[in-house]
TrEMBL record:
Residues 1-22, 69-89 are annotated as: Disordered. It comes from the Archaea. Residues 76-89 have a biased composition (Basic and acidic residues). The keyword Membrane does not apply. GO terms for molecular function: hydrolase activity. InterPro entries: Alkaline_phosphatase_core_sf, Phosphodiest/P_Trfase. This is Alkaline phosphatase family protein. Keywords: Plasmid. SUPFAM superfamilies: Alkaline phosphatase-like.
Length: 489
């Protein structure tokens, strides 16, 4: 696996300069890679972007770590988002997707503090942002996580009511789960067009999830290829909205891909191994059938919080070495990272040396991924295992993309065809830049490997285009500088 960018390069410095663009729109087309952008595959994106280059993501290449790095210019070792989940060591509890904004200052928050109008749509952990326009799903649920009514948290208050009146409820079941498809991207891009018309933001970041579903279900291949013209058409419709307003001549369009996919055929079950070794304990699951179990986190000596091709193992001090030897021997485990005391690879070298990280961090082989299961007998599965319940599961579950045999979602990990988390050059995502405001502007060299731009350079580059480069405290300098020409319209 390529050495992550967090391990190389030094901090860059930048100063406020004359802006190149009056408006920057970032399309976060998750799963998009440079080779996907061409006149025959994606003509709208190809025509919109002057330059498309690979971006080397920070390790781990997972949703929340990748997004926070892209939007802050910092590595996970600095910003602390080491997974899409969190493990609370004080409470011995694992939770996915439950953070709000917290102390994060992403580019739309820092640019707003610098005097710009900003917006972000469907980025993770938006609740609490002070961006001028923001939309993120926040369904109203009962105490058992059953949805009572679809809703979105927004800035300003009441915006979701207006969007619902125009476009209907946000199609949450097309955003994740067995029926996830392009309709979620369609709704989000419609909301983005509405945001441009109503709020005229100087910076707008839009998450477009569509390709992720094909990538996770099938991996790279014909199924993902078939979805490229679909997402391209949706993006093209949004770009037509931008071209039709009076700020088009001062607009820059940036496209980021977050990560690419490995084809996988080997699910790895670290919690089964820990349980069989007596390091992980279980207890009877509340509300489950006879024999149904739940992991007893306080009573366990070690537990693996899994997220695609990366697993964070939280272990009691006297169990770390036993867990390391056990898990390193599993088929599908490529690397075991620690604090540097074993003489092997350490977390610091991978840019993930943060207190939020596990005592051990497992990296899967390219064709493998980690499943959260601690059982092999389905009778022991907890009641939420066959349900679409992303908050109850103490690990990421891509099986939720497949209809189940016994419940809503599948319990067959062999169905999963794609995964991510490693930072291999063949899976580098795209970074593209276009629009009239950057016509003729050349991107400087990034500090990533294989000719790629370091993902940490993207936030400062966007800030530099807007003339607020000093607002982003990034670890590397922007790809454009004072020599770029242009001014705000």
């Amino acid at each position: 696996m390529a050495e992550p960018p967090g391990a190389a390069g030094g901090p860059g410095s930048s100063e406020t300069s004359e802006p190149t663009a009056g408006r920057v729109v970032v399309l976060d087309v998750v799963g998009l890679q440079p080779e996907h952008v061409s006149a025959d595959r994606t003509p709208e994106l190809d025509a919109a972007l002057e330059e498309v280059i690979p971006s080397e993501p920070a390790f781990p290449a997972l949703t929340v770590p990748a997004q926070t790095t892209l939007a802050t210019g910092r590595s996970p070792a600095e910003h602390g988002d080491v997974s899409s989940g969190e493990y609370d060591r004080e409470r011995d509890a694992a939770a996915f997707w439950e953070r709000d904004r917290g102390g994060r200052d992403r580019i739309w928050e820092t640019a707003r503090e610098a005097g710009l109008t900003t917006g972000a749509l469907f980025f993770q952990h938006l609740i609490g942002t002070d961006a001028d326009v923001a939309v993120t799903p926040s369904p109203i649920e009962d105490e058992d996580n059953n949805m009572l009514e679809m809703n979105c948290w927004t800035n300003p208050d009441g915006l979701y009511d207006d969007l619902r009146a125009e476009y209907g409820h946000f199609p949450l079941h097309n955003y994740w789960g067995p029926t996830a498809n392009e309709e979620s991207s369609r709704w989000i891009l419609s909301a983005a067009s509405e945001a441009v018309e109503r709020f005229d933001p100087d910076l707008l970041w839009v998450y477009v999830p569509h390709l992720d579903y094909a990538g996770l279900r099938h991996g790279p291949g014909p199924e993902l290829e078939a979805e490229l013209p679909v997402v391209d058409e949706l993006v093209g419709g949004f770009l037509a909205t931008l071209r039709g307003d009076d700020r088009w001549d001062e607009t820059a369009v940036a496209v980021v891909g977050e990560y690419g996919f490995h084809g996988v055929d080997t699910p790895v079950l670290p919690n089964v191994a820990l349980r069989e070794a007596g390091l992980l304990e279980t207890e009877s699951a509340d509300g489950g059938s006879a024999g149904s179990t739940e992991v007893d986190l306080p009573g366990s000596d070690a537990f693996a919080m899994v997220d695609h091709q990366v697993a964070h193992v939280y272990a009691d001090g006297d169990a770390v070495e036993e867990a390391r030897e056990l898990l390193a021997s599993l088929d599908g485990v490529d690397v075991v990272l620690d604090g540097g005391g074993s003489g092997g690879p350490d977390k610091a070298a991978y840019g993930v040396d943060h207190p939020n990280a596990g005592d051990l961090v497992l990296v899967a082989e390219p064709s493998a991924w980690f499943a959260y299961y601690w059982w092999t007998d389905r009778a022991e599965a907890p009641p939420y295992a066959a349900e679409m319940d992303i908050h109850a599961k103490p690990g990421f579950d891509p099986c939720e993309l497949f209809l189940g045999e016994e419940g809503l979602v599948s319990l067959d990990p062999s169905k999963v065809g794609g995964s991510h988390g490693r930072t291999d050059p063949g899976t580098y995502p795209a970074f593209g830049l276009g629009g009239p405001a950057v016509s003729g502007v050349e991107l400087g060299e990034g500090t990533g490997s294989e000719g790629a731009v370091d993902a940490r350079a993207i936030a400062p580059t966007i800030a530099a285009l807007l003339g607020v480069a000093d607002a982003v405290d990034a670890e590397v300098p922007p790809l454009v500088g004072d020599e770029t020409e242009g001014s705000r319209g």
